[in-house]
Amino acid sequence: MKKKILIIDDDPQICKSLRKVLQAEGYEVVLAASGREGLDKFDPVHTDLVMLDINLPGEKGWDVFARITSINALLPIIIITGRQDQFEMAAAAGVGALIEKPMDMLFLLQTVAEMLVEPLDARIERLAGLNHYMRFSYPKSNGASQKTTPS
Question: CB–CB of 22/5 below 8 Å?
Answer without folding.
Answer: yes
